[in-house]
């Protein structure tokens, strides 16, 4: 029996505006890049929103938030991670005055959470750059984005101070290297971008994140602001020294994004990395001082580990979340080829904490599979024992990391209610404890049904992890 989770551990779930809200033009909202990405990150973009884009309706959280938050409260959530859609607050992204209807919407969402004793954990930018900024400035390739983001942050910090204590700046900020449109609102095709373009855009996001931290601490002294990175473990494929060095280098590329935001400066190894990539970061006066506004904690997603080698062509390539490496022959994988490695979560927690000695927050972890509704004793449900096993095994390893001495603030399971997949824009790839009756062709009633995992997670929370086995 695990007793390692602290008494104030923040159990909960995570969602994102563009994947669940829908109502893409209601309440004065402007378009975001997601509104022209009908096939997710893997497909082509459209000139205008298409009916085939499931995100335009999502799961209708915009209208059903109160019902859904009540279900989260029934599970016992201590926190809910959600994002604010920038284009609800500033429809084009570069206006001087905000859209009051958008602010009022998040007033209602936040108040609903608080009424149930649920701590809001708000992501400021979750893959939903306003489309106007992407079209006019090519997203974060432009330094002007820093000022627009600062204005947006100041607006929501002033509005929600006293109600929201936990904030995240950019969701999976390191994803910009692999997916510049989703991660950086960059419309120029990736194949036309240089490494200089991509890492310069990342620098603009680093500066914007640092400004957000500085602003938050000025406006809300009690607030805690975290970075958020795509967490991946890179195992060497073999103990051959060349593979060990390859693993070290891949891990360094990932750690660059936490090093800058947690330590407040570019690490020494970035000199070689940038030299090898032909990158020379253009710094403006004051950038070095700005970066010293470091985050209060490190949050990350964890879905899978991967292997790497000095010569990856010798091995079978793995599939998975945003980045893929060499397939690990010792691990099972999901229907979408994501390799399941609960121990990797313990490893990554120790890796981060040993490196930074700052609190961690696991803000995404979950299993995306095709669920089937069944009727049992007059109740419609999903017998998702596979999801229970996946989450149980990961939480066991998270508990072991805490026993190792790692400080972990909380855990928010990804897609605590079914939503549209970011990678493939499908609804059939389900993560939730709550089934939403909507299909890939857009049909369905949008009714909500509790899966078997709903009551399992409720017990995990009520026992503070003691029910895990």
UniProtKB/TrEMBL annotation:
- What keywords appear on the UniProt entry? Glycosidase, Hydrolase
A single Gene Ontology CC term: cytosol
Q: Per its UniProt record, what Gene3D superfamilies does this chain match?
A: Glycosidases
| Keyword Nucleus on entry | no
Task: List the active site.
Answer: 364 (nucleophile)
What GO biological process, any one, is recorded here? carbohydrate catabolic process
What PROSITE patterns does its record include? GLYCOSYL_HYDROL_F1_1, GLYCOSYL_HYDROL_F1_2
Family matches, as SUPFAM superfamilies? (Trans)glycosidases
Q: Which InterPro entries match?
A: GH, GH_1_N_CS, Glyco_hydro_1, Glyco_hydro_1_AS
A single GO molecular-function term is:
beta-glucosidase activity
Instruction: Specify the superkingdom.
Output: Bacteria
What is the similarity comment for this entry? Answer: Belongs to the glycosyl hydrolase 1 family.
- Family matches, as NCBIfam families: PRK09852.1 (NF007356)
Tell me the protein's name: 6-phospho-beta-glucosidase
């Amino acid at each position: 029996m695990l007793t390692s989770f602290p008494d104030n551990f923040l159990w909960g779930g995570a969602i994102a505006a563009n994947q669940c809200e829908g109502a893409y033009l209601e309440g004065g909202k402007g378009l975001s890049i997601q509104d022209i990405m009908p096939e997710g990150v893997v497909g082509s973009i459209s000139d205008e929103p298409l009916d085939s884009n499931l995100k335009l309706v999502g799961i209708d959280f915009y209208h059903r938030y109160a019902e859904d938050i009540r279900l989260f409260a029934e599970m016992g959530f201590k926190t809910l991670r959600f994002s604010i859609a920038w284009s609800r607050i500033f429809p084009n992204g570069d206006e001087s005055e905000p859209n009051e209807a958008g602010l009022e919407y998040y007033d209602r969402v936040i108040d609903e959470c608080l009424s149930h004793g649920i701590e809001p954990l708000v992501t400021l930018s979750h893959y939903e750059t306003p489309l106007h900024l992407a079209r006019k400035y090519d997203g974060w390739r432009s330094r002007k984005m820093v000022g627009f983001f600062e204005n947006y942050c100041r607006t929501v910090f002033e509005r929600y101070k006293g109600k929201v204590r936990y904030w995240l700046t950019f969701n999976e900020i390191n994803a910009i290297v692999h997916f510049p449109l989703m991660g950086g609102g960059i419309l120029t095709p990736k194949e036309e971008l240089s490494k200089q373009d991509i890492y310069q855009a990342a620098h603009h996001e680093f500066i914007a994140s640092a400004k957000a931290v500085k602003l938050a601490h000025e406006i809300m002294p009690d607030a805690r602001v975290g970075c958020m990175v795509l967490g991946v473990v890179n195992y060497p494929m073999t103990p051959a020294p060349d593979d060990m060095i390859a693993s070290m280098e891949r891990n360094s590329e990932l750690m660059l994004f936490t090093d800058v935001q947690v330590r407040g400066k570019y690490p020494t190894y970035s000199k070689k990395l940038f030299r090898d990539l032909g990158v020379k970061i253009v710094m403006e006066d004051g950038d070095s001082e700005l970066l010293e506004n470091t985050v209060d904690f490190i949050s990350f997603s964890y879905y899978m580990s991967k292997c790497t080698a000095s010569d990856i062509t010798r091995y079978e390539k793995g599939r998975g979340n945003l980045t893929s490496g060499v397939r690990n022959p010792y691990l099972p994988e999901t229907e979408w080829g994501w390799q399941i490695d609960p121990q990797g979560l313990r490893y990554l927690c120790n890796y981060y904490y040993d490196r930074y000695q700052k609190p961690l927050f696991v803000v995404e972890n979950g299993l995306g599979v095709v669920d089937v509704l069944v009727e049992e004793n007059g109740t419609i449900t999903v017998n998702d024992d596979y999801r229970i096993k996946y989450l149980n095994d990961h939480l066991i390893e998270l508990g072991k990391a805490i026993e190792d001495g790692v400080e972990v603030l909380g855990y928010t399971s990804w897609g605590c209610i079914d939503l549209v997949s970011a990678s493939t824009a499908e609804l059939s790839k389900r993560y939730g404890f709550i089934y939403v009756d909507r299909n890939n062709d857009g049909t369905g009633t949008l009714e909500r049904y509790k899966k078997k995992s709903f009551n399992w997670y409720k017990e995990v929370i009520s026992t503070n992890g003691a029910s895990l086995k």
